[in-house]
């Protein structure tokens, strides 16, 4: 499992084939709201029809394989472990990234906590599928306003540094110093954003 690494990708132009038409397939589709999604299954719940670009009603494995060619990602989301395993093998043989509801794929789809300006992805690397949504729920209660304020402050520090500091190395050290400075952290902890920003502005012109 150590070969898996987290990676953020642009999905707007992705062409995805989802094999399966139940709740698991629906959850997978929700993860790629801007992609072009083709779904093939013997039956499809209505929610999937609202997300997919194309729905094909079929339980033919040969038809599933035919539809794989040229896809950016294949998702095996049937309730049949043998079918999913077959799909994974076929996708691997075509060198197409594949995710499977029963494991064994080359791509893992994490649970994600989305906040304005940042997101946190969580995966158990396939060992305990119930753990990522649990941790996301826990993190949602733990990540308070101070994290949003620090994000805003660092974005402002980056812009200020670009305007005031010509040397690239010095800019990076300046921004890193903002994020690790105990006084600034204390101000952000107390949600005193204006005072923290004032310090950033003052340090940038020294």
Q: What does this protein look like?
A:
The protein has 206 residues and is α/β, with parallel strands linked by helices. The chain folds into two domains: 15-109, Rossmann fold; 145-204. The chain is 47% helix and 16% strand. The strands form two sheets. A five-stranded parallel β-sheet has the order 3-2-1-4-5, sandwiched between helices. It has a two-stranded antiparallel sheet with strand order 6-7.
- For the record, give the distance between the C-alpha atoms at the N and C termini, rounded to a whole number: 48 Å
The residue ranges in which pLDDT falls below 50 over 5 or more consecutive positions are: none
Question: What spatial order of strands do you see in the largest sheet?
Answer: 3-2-1-4-5
Q: Write the CATH homologous superfamily of the largest domain.
A: NAD(P)-binding Rossmann-like Domain
Radius of gyration: 22 Å
Tell me, what's the shape? elongated
Q: Identify the quaternary structure here.
A: single chain
Name the beta content range: 15-25%
Number of strands: 7
| Percent helix | 40-55%
What's the order of the H and E elements? EHEHEHEHEEEHHHHH
CATH-scheme architecture of the largest domain = 3-Layer(aba) Sandwich
Number of helices: 9
The overall pLDDT, averaged over residues, is 94
Major beta-sheet overview: 5 strands, parallel
Coarse structural class: alpha/beta
Any idea of the CATH class of the largest domain? Alpha Beta
Characteristics of this structure?
206 residues, alpha/beta, Rossmann fold, 2 domains, 5-stranded parallel beta sheet, two-stranded antiparallel ribbon, 9 helices, 16% strand
């Amino acid at each position: 499992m150590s070969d898996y690494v987290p990676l953020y990708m642009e999905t707007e132009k992705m062409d995805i084939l989802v094999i399966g038409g139940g709740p698991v397939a629906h959850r997978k589709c929700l993860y790629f709201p801007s992609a072009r999604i083709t779904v093939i299954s013997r039956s499809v719940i209505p929610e999937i029809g609202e997300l997919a670009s194309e729905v094909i009603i079929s339980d033919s494995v040969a038809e599933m394989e035919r539809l794989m060619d040229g896809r950016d990602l294949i998702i095996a989301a049937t309730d049949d472990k043998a079918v999913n395993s077959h799909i994974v093998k076929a996708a691997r043989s075509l060198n197409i990234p594949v995710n499977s509801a029963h494991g064994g794929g080359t791509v893992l789809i994490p649970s994600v906590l989305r906040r304005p300006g940042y997101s946190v992805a969580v995966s158990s690397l396939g060992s305990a599928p119930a753990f990522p949504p649990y941790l996301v729920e826990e993190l949602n209660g733990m990540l308070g306003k101070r994290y949003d304020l620090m994000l805003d402050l660092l974005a402002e520090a980056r812009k200020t540094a670009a305007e005031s500091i010509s040397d690239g190395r010095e800019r990076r050290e300046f921004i890193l110093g903002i994020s690790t400075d105990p006084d600034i952290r204390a101000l952000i902890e107390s949600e005193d954003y204006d005072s923290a920003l004032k310090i950033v502005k003052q340090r940038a012109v020294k």
